[in-house]
């Protein structure tokens, strides 16, 4: 049997550590869900099964996935360091991660989607806004995950590096969104991107969600380029800033080239913006996310 299945050597107490981490992670996720319900005074079962609010379900699904992505990067981080250390470390990083994801969503609502009332749009069953909301949460989690894996240790230096770096990459995501908005306005007689989302333009929401997630994946590749130094706060921030801007710019260029090759003979701007072509929007989503994953894979193995 040993010749057929060869396993790597595992820590003898791995299952105990994983039980501790997963148990704390589930408690944190349940706590977030309970607090969200108490704060918003919204019944999940009523929204989903009575009102059939698909937009609410999409938004909640995006938030749940974002938390799972972040928790997945924290679980197992402290294997072999003692049960108490593992529990405290999981609790600390888990709480910090949940807070940062929440702050990322608030920043996206107040700074990126600043011209619409997201909660009201979702309550009105606006699927387009819900798709963008879910994508923004997932994008924030992807970037935060890369930083959690980038830092070393469980001290204050690691927390400072995570919070400061996360703020920088959120700024890059905002800049990229403003660029997409400006391009949309220039191609649509100065029409508003956010007002178009409010009208329920699903194709535009799908295409933009690909932009958000693709940019997040691309920015997360900076973790493979930067060397973590716990005491050089300024260089950590500037490193993430310059690397993120450069990588986001590369993605913008590569996706533009890919669209002209893959969608040759098709006016994809008009198809998505004017004719609400979900098929073309889906292809744009795949190009943005797919190219980002390719570049991420190359940089990860190169490092």
Give me a quick take on this structure.
With 303 residues, the protein is mostly helical. The protein has one domain (65-74, 92-302). Helices cover 78% and strands 0% of the residues.
Topology:
Elements: H1 14-40, H2 44-50, H3 54-74, H4 83-112, H5 118-123, H6 127-150, H7 156-187, H8 193-198, H9 202-220, H10 222-225, H11 233-262, H12 268-273, H13 278-302
Helix pairs in contact: 1-4, 3-4, 3-6, 4-6, 4-7, 6-7, 6-9, 7-9, 7-11, 9-11, 9-13, 11-13
Note down, in words, how this protein is organized.
This protein is mostly helical. It has one domain (65-74, 92-302). It has 13 helices and no strands. It has helices at 14-40, 44-50, 54-74, 83-112, 118-123, 127-150, 156-187, 193-198, 202-220, 222-225, 233-262, 268-273, 278-302. Helix 7 runs antiparallel to helix 9 (202-220). The model has no long low-confidence stretch (mean pLDDT 83).
Q: What is the average of the pLDDT values?
A: 83
Helix share bin: over 70%
Quote the beta fraction.
under 5%
First-to-last CA distance:
35 Å
Profile the largest sheet: none
What would you call the shape?
globular
List how many beta strands DSSP finds.
Answer: 0
**Category by helix and strand content:** mainly alpha
Which residues form runs of ≥5 with pLDDT under 50? Answer: none
User: Treating each run of at least 4 consecutive H or I residues as one helix, how many helices?
Assistant: 13
How many discrete domains? 1
Gyration radius (Cα, Å) is 21 Å
Order of helices and strands: HHHHHHHHHHHHH
């Amino acid at each position: 049997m040993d010749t057929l299945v060869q396993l790597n050597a595992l820590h003898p107490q791995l299952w105990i550590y994983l039980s501790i981490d997963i148990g704390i992670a589930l408690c944190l996720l349940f706590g977030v869900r309970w607090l969200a319900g108490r704060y918003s005074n919204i019944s999940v079962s009523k929204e989903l099964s009575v009102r059939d609010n698909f937009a609410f379900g999409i938004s909640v699904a995006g938030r749940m996935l974002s938390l799972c992505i972040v928790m997945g990067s924290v679980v197992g981080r402290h294997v072999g360091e003692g049960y108490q250390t593992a529990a405290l470390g999981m609790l600390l990083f888990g709480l910090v991660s949940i807070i940062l994801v929440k702050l990322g969503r608030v920043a996206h609502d107040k700074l990126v989607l600043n011209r619409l009332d997201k909660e009201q749009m979702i309550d009105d069953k606006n699927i387009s806004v819900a798709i963008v909301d879910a994508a923004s949460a997932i994008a924030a989690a992807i970037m935060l995950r890369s930083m959690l894996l980038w830092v070393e240790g469980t001290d204050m230096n690691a927390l400072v590096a995570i919070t400061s770096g996360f703020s920088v990459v959120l700024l890059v995501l905002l800049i990229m969104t403003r660029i997409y908005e400006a391009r949309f306005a220039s191609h649509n007689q100065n029409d508003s991107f956010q007002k178009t989302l409010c009208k329920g333009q699903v194709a535009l929401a799908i295409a933009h969600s690909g932009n958000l997630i693709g940019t997040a994946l691309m920015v997360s590749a900076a973790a493979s380029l930067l060397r973590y130094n716990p005491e050089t706060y300024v260089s950590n921030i500037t490193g993430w800033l310059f690397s993120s801007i450069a990588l986001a710019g590369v993605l913008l260029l590569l996706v533009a080239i890919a669209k002209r090759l893959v969608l040759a003979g098709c006016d994809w701007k008009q198809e998505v913006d004017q004719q609400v072509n979900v098929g073309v929007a889906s292809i744009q989503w795949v190009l943005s996310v797919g190219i980002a994953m390719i570049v991420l894979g190359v940089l990860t193995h190169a490092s």
